[in-house]
Amino acid sequence: MVKTAILVSGGGTNLQAIIDAHLFGEIKNCALAAVISSNPEAYALERAQHADIPSYVVDRSLFPNRETFTKALLEKLQDLEIDLAVYAGFNFILAPPFIEAYRNRVINIHPSLIPSFCGLGYYGLRTHEAVLAHGVKVTGATAHFATEIADDGPIILQKAISVLEDDTPNTLQRRVMEEAEWEILPRAISLFCEGRLEVDGRIVHIKEAAETDE
Ligand code: GAR
What we know:
By secondary structure, the protein is of the alpha/beta class. The protein has 6 helices and 9 strands, in the order βαβαβαβαβαββαββ. It has helices at 13-23, 44-50, 66-79, 96-101, 125-134, 169-193, and strands at 2-8, 30-37, 55-57, 84-87, 106-110, 138-145, 155-162, 197-200, 203-206. The chain has a 7-stranded mixed beta sheet with strand order 3-2-1-4-5-6-7, covered by helices on one side. A two-stranded antiparallel ribbon has the order 8-9. Helix 1 packs across helix 6 (169-193) and helix 5 (125-134) crosses helix 6 (169-193). The longest helix is centred in the last third of the chain and has 25 residues, at 169-193. The radius of gyration is 17 Å and the shape is globular. Bound molecules: glycinamide ribonucleotide.
């Protein structure tokens, strides 16, 4: 079993999608070992509690800078012997020591088709505002390995959805979540936990599932 920690900062709908998929057996070989929040008020913590997943707070506001916050988070993951970390609406780019320790073992979900509408300043609703302001006809979500650079790592899965004439940032956000994020993030976690992801530079190869007797 791959010991997995979900890192959150807010509402945690992606966390909920992971919990539900795990419950339905759609995420294989994965132990949901911890939910870690950067925000003590995050509703995601309640979702973890309902699902009986141990939860922890590493409160960003108590640390003077990114380096000390990163160190505390890394220590928490290492204390818990976590194999895979997932940013599920986690609002921070951690300092390099984190990625060095967890290279190709951190998965992020971003609400656009990377490399469009991503990087610093593009998060949450702002991403969808930018999509609408640009007038693109297609957007979506991307699950990728996180690196030291915001939204830049090797892409695991993407799903496209159409932008509608009457979309607002809120309606678009909801559709991207429902139709793309909540589907590809649990799927990417399962592929990782099944040992089916092979990273070659920027390229992620997805291997066939091993044959079972079931
Ligand atoms: C999600 O749409 C996620 O993709 C986005 O924040 C939202 C968090 O919602 N993340 C980013 O924009 C990261 N660049 P949630 O807390 O309900 O999962």
